[in-house]
Write a structure and sequence with these properties.
The structure holds two protein chains of two kinds.
Chain A: H1 16-40, H2 46-49, H3 51-64, E1 70-72, E2 78-81, H4 83-116, H5 119-122, E3 127-128, H6 129-161, H7 165-183, H8 196-234, H9 239-282, H10 285-315, H11 325-341, E4 347-348, H12 350-367, H13 370-381, H14 385-409, H15 413-421, H16 426-459, H17 468-477, H18 481-509
Antiparallel strand pairs in A: 1-2, 3-4
Chain B: H1 13-37, H2 43-46, H3 48-61, E1 67-80, E2 91-95, E3 98-103, E4 114-119, E5 126-132, E6 141-147, E7 154-158, E8 170-185, H4 187-220, H5 223-226, E9 231-232, H6 233-265, H7 268-295, H8 298-304, H9 308-337, H10 342-385, H11 388-418, H12 428-443, E10 450-451, H13 453-470, H14 473-484, H15 488-512, H16 516-524, H17 529-562, H18 571-580, H19 584-612
Antiparallel strand pairs in B: 1-8, 2-3, 3-4, 4-7, 5-6, 5-8, 9-10
Classes of the chains: A mainly alpha, B alpha+beta.
Chain lengths: 510, 613
């Protein structure tokens, strides 16, 4: 039509001709995509209309419409719940509790991760190269020291726990000792700036108090194993309390060395980076360069060696030195040269790098459905609800980690600036400016996730992850549709009512 | 301490402490029970055999079977005896300076451990151990792999994945890998590629169809739109009374049209000509109508265009019916003519199929809706024309007929589902009984009183949506697999149904959240219900609808990766098979593909959403 308008400026709106051409092309593209999609998904309307298939479906629907809820007496009276109903009740409870455990544990793990995966918190974290590489050197040291110390304490606790009643007394004594170290003597936290000697004494006291307290806990956890088993036998119906104590003690015993290792690594990073930074800031240009270059060589080499060792564990290379020692040396030298050549005080955006790594890991983990994770966990811990809980927990952690960190990113900056202006450090800033802002959305998302987990736990049994899905798929495979119907009804009821409940709770909390 | 505080004041410390203790104990018990029920046991994952198994799995997952190699191998064969003879023995074979020993050389169960040791191999030589099951058809299966040390020795512990007793000895082949050359993508990668495409397409179809169907539903499930519509009892009941008639007429029309379309479309060229002609008529008349609408007043429009809308409707319907036939013929022809673009022909065939199969059903629905609309209007008219006792009597009569018919229809459905012994107990008798009863009750009601019929429909639709939404697509998929067989079609249908329910709810919540201002303004101009929706509601809800459709597309992509676990097509089916056969390296390719595709689509959809809103 108006072909002369073809040559209008690119900034103005496109001419009718160009617009219609674009629309036409888009329509063609959509047709081709959907045509291919119909082919690819093998949509064929003849299949569902085949008489045999329709009979099949009608038969199934009729059976599903008559759920096997009750057993009847000879007179046709309802005599009680059917076997299918009883199994359904038991399994639906299992399903709900699977979701509960996964949501709780997942939320707890996701909260600290979300702070590390929040761009606004991590972006300002910048550091000279010396700080970063010193942190890398201190990381394995810290992890090793604290991990070893805690395993030693746990073992010591086991020795003491063999004394039975005396052990209980000793545990109480060590708690009392810990309390005494903190309370007796001058205040640990003072407003006046302390002398180095005072700081040293305070540090020693804190370490002593923590060690004593932890030793008490270690003894208690070993006693808890015994007490838990004892209670499980004695309490009858409430035996689950004994089991809980047993599992908690077991958890403490098995996981605390690992947690301590992680904590030690974090302390190592924190102290290493501070030390490295202080040294480099206190040095002149040339010694600063030398120092930076030196710690860069060592730090990078340690880091690469560690990664190489991990890879070698996984892949079991023919010649491990090619993956550990040589790349560590080469990488160390390269980064060392860089460290020598850059301005030693120039800050590097290390926070951003950490943020990107965490976000990527979260996104990749999140993209794998919990059902696929469950297959892997079933191979590890066997068929049953535990595998389901683990799979749901992992997926929950990844999904909530992302959602939570997005919430942290969208907080108002006013309170943060206000708290920083008072001279607060990073931890205080998070505690007083960030946390109060993120608690309501965190709770809302945790409930939202609990909804999703309830839904997921109804189907995670399809791959052996426990819950009602397991028996449901069995019943369907055996063509026992009346029994399957009971389970589907139970799922619909439970999911719909928990959905309603959680939305009410969410409304009340926010 | 005051243990009885006044109302409105904070609770006393004692009470608060008590409450906190009670909550604490409750939470403790809850989690204690949860730990018991979910069988959380930290010892299981740490058992050495389990750890070994999971480490082995991780190591194999760490080496995805991405590429295919042409391997040059050198094989030595041992024999395996099943079941075990007495006494147990071992087997040994030598060749090329290599010696292999298998002890014992027999198995009875899949738990039996076999130990294979070899020596005389080149340092660090690698290879695999295959088992040839009895029978000529059976495919050799890999049971273990080995790697020699610096001295050319190796020892491998393994179990058999399967035990098949046979008369003659079974072959165990030890293949040493001598050289490898890259030849392209591995079998697993190719399967993954084709399946991941299928997965994405399933999600695409389900999201598109689900969105299209959920949109009209969401208006019915929106409280703010529905709570406005009320009707008098007579209007409501006459609508119910004529509903089946409208549906029946619509269906008959659809059948007749399909028949006519089939007759005309049987001669493809004539059919195509008539199809184009009818479309042309429809387009021309519609254009005239729109042009006239722009200038003429509405009264003028009604007199000048009394019959044109009907003409357009009939012409368009007939054209669609003809398409149902010529699309079939033309599609089949195109499928062969177009080569790799043959899927375009397939698309045409499917579209024609949809038209032919669904036209009567759709027209039935349309007929029912028109009947309801007309019925309620004339029922209300009656009410406003007459008054007093006569109005009450008429209302009662209409109510008796309307409710009787509805109950009869509902009874017929129940009977179809349950196949009762005595049909009349569920259809005729309750229809007559309740019809009469409700008719009598209706005479006691003020005839012009508005009944909140809209709210009733709202609750009904919302209830259905919520129930459907709570059943996972995987469970729906099982039913669809029974119906349409294994494959992506079943998965697509399941995802579509769940998308409809989910989007129906999300969309209707958006409709409920719209601003009242435009609505009141458009209503004030004298617009009717449809015009109000088109000019006041739709512009407000398009952005959130698009956002939710994309959100659902994300969910559907995730779901379609696992819907194969129940036979619903996509990558899930092969993934599960691979894992069950312990082919972790192949499974690893699929898991990586899922992670990459889901992450990328997630990112793309987030970007698109940001741009569109």
């Amino acid at each position: 039509m108006q072909t002369e308008a073809n040559t209008t400026n690119t900034n103005s709106t496109p001419t009718p001709f160009v617009k219609s051409l674009r629309t036409f092309l888009l329509v063609i593209l959509a047709v081709v995509i959907y045509a291919y999609a119909v082919e690819g998904t093998r949509i064929n309307l003849q299949t569902p209309m085949e008489p045999r298939r329709q009979d099949n479906l009608i038969n199934v629907l009729r059976l599903l419409a008559q759920p096997d809820l009750f057993i009847y007496s000879a007179q046709g009276q309802i005599a009680g719940l059917s076997e299918a109903s009883l199994i359904t009740l038991e399994r639906i409870v299992e399903t709900v509790f699977m979701a509960l455990m996964a949501s709780t544990i997942g939320t707890m793990i996701a909260i600290p991760i979300s702070f590390v995966a929040a761009r606004n918190l991590m972006e300002p974290v910048r550091m000279p190269l010396a700080g970063i590489t010193t942190a890398l050197i201190a990381l394995p040291i810290g992890g090793f020291v604290l991990g070893t110390a805690v395993s030693f304490l746990v073992q010591l606790g086991e020795q003491i726990a063999a004394l039975n009643w005396l052990a209980l007394l000793l545990a109480l004594a060590s708690f009392a000792g810990s309390w005494a170290v903190v309370k007796l003597g001058p205040e640990l936290v003072t407003t006046e700036s302390p002398t180095p000697a005072q700081t040293a004494i305070a540090t020693v006291r804190v370490i002593a108090a923590v060690t004593l307290g932890f030793l008490g806990l270690a003894v208690l956890s070993h006693l808890g194993l015994v007490a838990g088993l004892w209670l499980e036998e004695r309490l009858g119906l409430f035996g689950f309390i004994g089991n809980f104590i047993f599992v908690l003690s077991d958890f403490f015993r098995l996981v605390s060395p690992i947690l301590a290792m992680v904590l030690g690594a974090m302390v190592g990073i924190s102290m290493g980076s501070r030390v490295g930074q202080e040294i480099v800031l206190g040095l002149e240009m040339v010694p600063g360069r030398l120092f930076t270059g030196l710690v860069s060589v060592v730090g990078t080499a340690v880091c690469i060696y560690g990664i190489g060792t991990g890879l070698n564990w996984l892949y079991q290379f023919n010649d491990p030195a090619w993956w550990t020692t040589y790349p560590a040396l080469a990488g160390g030298l390269i980064v060392g040269l860089i460290g020598f050549s850059v301005d030693p005080r120039r800050p590097f955006p290390v926070g951003l790098a950490v943020y990107n790594i965490f976000r990527t890991i979260l996104n990749l983990t999140r993209s794998i459905e919990s059902l696929i994770m469950a297959i892997v966990f079933v191979i590890w811990v066997g068929v049953g609800p535990f595998a389901g809980v683990l799979a749901l927990t992992l997926h929950t952690t990844a999904a909530l980690g992302k959602l939570f960190s997005e919430q942290v990113e969208s907080i108002a900056t006013g309170p943060v600036e206000g708290v920083i202006a008072t001279g607060a450090n990073r931890l205080q800033m998070i505690a007083y400016a960030v946390v109060p802002q993120v608690v309501p959305p965190f709770i809302a998302f945790a409930f939202y996730r609990w909804d999703i987990n309830v839904r997921m736990s109804t189907i995670i049994g399809f791959v052996g992850g426990g819950g009602i899905g397991f028996v449901l798929s069995q019943n369907i495979n055996l063509l026992r549709y009346q029994q399957a119907s009971v389970m589907m009804i139970a799922i619909a009821l439970v999911v719909a009512s928990l959905d309603y409940l959680s939305s009410k709770v969410r409304e009340r909390i926010i | 301490m005051k243990s009885r505080p006044n109302k409105g004041q904070p609770a006393s410390p004692l009470r608060r402490a008590l409450r906190n203790i009670a909550i604490g104990v409750g939470v403790f018990l809850l989690y204690a029970y949860a730990v018991q029920v979910t069988q959380i046991n930290l010892r299981t994952p740490l058992e050495p055999t389990r750890q070994e198994r999971v480490i082995d799995m991780l190591r194999r997952l760490g080496r995805p079977d991405l590429l295919a190699y042409d391997t040059e191998v050198q094989a030595l064969n041992l024999s395996l005896i099943t079941p075990c003879p007495e006494p147990l023995r071992g087997g040994q074979i030598s060749g090329d300076g290599r010696t292999i020993t298998l002890a014992p050389n027999c198995v009875e169960t899949t738990q039996d451990r076999l130990v294979m040791s070899g020596e005389g191999y080149p340092p660090n030589a690698r290879g695999i151990i295959r088992w040839h099951p009895p029978g000529t058809e059976a495919v050799a299966r890999q049971v273990a792999s080995f790697r020699a040390d610096e001295d050319g020795r190796f020892v491998v512990n393994f179990t058999m994945p399967d035990v098949r007793p046979s008369e003659e000895a079974q072959r165990i082949e030890v293949e040493e890998i001598i050289g490898q050359t890259l030849t392209g993508l591995s079998n697993a990668s190719e399967v993954t590629l084709s399946r991941i495409v299928e997965t994405i397409l399933m999600a695409l179809m389900a999201s598109t169809l689900g969105t299209i169907i959920a949109m009209p539903l969401s208006f019915i499930a929106a409280r703010n739109l529905m709570s406005r519509s009320g009707a008098t009892l007579a209007g409501m009941m006459s609508a119910l009374a004529v509903l089946p008639l409208g549906g029946f007429l619509g269906r008959q029309l659809g059948i007749a049209l399909t028949w006519a379309g089939a007759q005309i479309g049987n001669q493809p060229w004539v059919g195509l000509l008539i199809f184009v002609l009818l479309l042309g008529i429809s387009v021309v008349v519609t254009r005239q109508y729109i042009a006239a609408q722009a200038e003429a007043s509405s009264i003028d429009l009604e007199t000048r265009f009394a019959w044109q809308p009907y003409l357009v409707t009939v012409a368009a319907l007939l054209a669609v019916a003809i398409f149902g036939q010529i699309g079939l013929v033309g599609g089949e022809w195109l499928r062969e003519a177009l080569g790799i673009f043959g899927f375009l022909g397939g698309f045409l065939v499917t579209l024609a199929d949809i038209v032919r199969l669904l036209l009567p059903t759709i027209l039935m629905l349309v007929g029912a809706v028109i009947a309801v609309s007309l019925g309620s209007r004339y029922g209300e008219e009656i009410n406003f024309r007459i008054e007093g006792t006569a109005a009450r009597l008429v209302t009662g009569l209409i109510t008796a007929v309307g409710s009787g018919l509805t109950i009869y229809g509902f009874g017929l459905f129940l009977n179809w589902l349950y196949q009762f012994e005595n049909v009349h107990n569920w259809t005729t008798y309750p229809a007559i009984g309740f019809g009469l009863l409700l008719g009598l009750l209706a005479t006691t009601v003020e005839p012009r009183r508005e009944m909140p019929i809209g709210l009733g429909i709202y609750y009904l639709v919302r209830g259905i949506l919520n129930t459907l939404r709570s059943i996972e697509p995987l469970i729906m998929g099982i039913v669809f697999v029974v119906w349409v067989g294994l494959g992506p079609f079943a998965g697509m249908l399941a995802l579509m149904l769940h998308s409809i329910a989910d989007l129906g709810k999300l969309f209707s919540e958006q409709v409920e959240n719209i601003a009242e201002g435009p609505l009141e303004a458009v209503t004030a101009t004298g617009a009717n219900r449809v015009q109000t929706i088109v000019f006041a509601v739709v512009p407000q809800i398009v952005p959130p609808f698009i956002a939710f459709a994309f959100y659902r597309w994300d969910i559907n992509v995730r779901m379609s990766t696992i819907i194969g676990f129940i036979g619903g097509g996509g990558i899930g089916l092969v993934l599960q098979q691979n894992i069950n056969l312990l082919l972790y390296r192949q499974a690893s390719v699929m898991i990586i593909a899922i992670a990459v595709v889901v992450t990328v689509l997630d990112y793309v959809s987030a970007k698109l959403r940001n741009r569109l809103i």
